[in-house]
Design brief:
Elements: H1 12-19, H2 23-26, E1 30-35, E2 38-44, H3 58-76, E3 81-93, E4 101-111, E5 115-124, E6 130-142
Antiparallel strand pairs: 1-2, 2-4, 3-6, 4-5, 5-6
Length: about 140
């Protein structure tokens, strides 16, 4: 099968450099693995990840999980697609953090021609606690 993302583009360094001016770059999200079957990465908790209440902002976790799912979706798109867009997402939160490293792992649930569904587990690497479960549906955009 031929893919939209080339093997040369499917590296953590390439993706991280590409993401610098965008939201993942602003949140210091680092991709550590990207493949056709998933992606992994995370961030070290900093002030820009926090809510005014002193805990990790839920949006930081959602952005991390959505980034992992989006990067994995990009890597698995056939070359007949022109891209994708998120059409649904859901998050359940179980724990928070005030410091340390947050890590996310995205795995495919469904890789169809018109939609993809991805799950992402978010954990705190220092404590081992599961912080959130995330699921998103991506619409595969056909070439015009």
């Amino acid at each position: 099968m031929a893919y939209l993302m080339t093997d040369e583009q499917r590296t953590p360094d390439y993706i991280n450099n590409r993401n610098i001016p965008f939201l993942p770059g602003h949140l210091d999200i680092e991709i550590t693995r990207i493949d056709r079957d998933g992606a992994e990465g995370g961030f070290t908790v900093g002030p820009h990840h926090m809510a005014p209440n002193g805990f990790l902002h839920a949006g930081s976790i959602v952005s991390l999980a959505d980034t992992m799912c989006g990067m994995a979706c990009s890597a698995s798109l056939p070359d007949t697609a022109r891209g994708f867009t998120t059409i649904e997402l859901k998050s359940n939160f179980f724990a928070t953090a005030t410091s340390g490293r947050v890590h996310a792992t995205a795995t495919p649930v469904h890789l169809g021609g018109m939609t993809q569904v991805w799950d992402c587990e978010v954990v705190h690497l220092d404590t081992g606690k599961r912080m959130a479960s995330f699921r998103c549906t991506q619409m595969v955009l056909a070439r015009r």
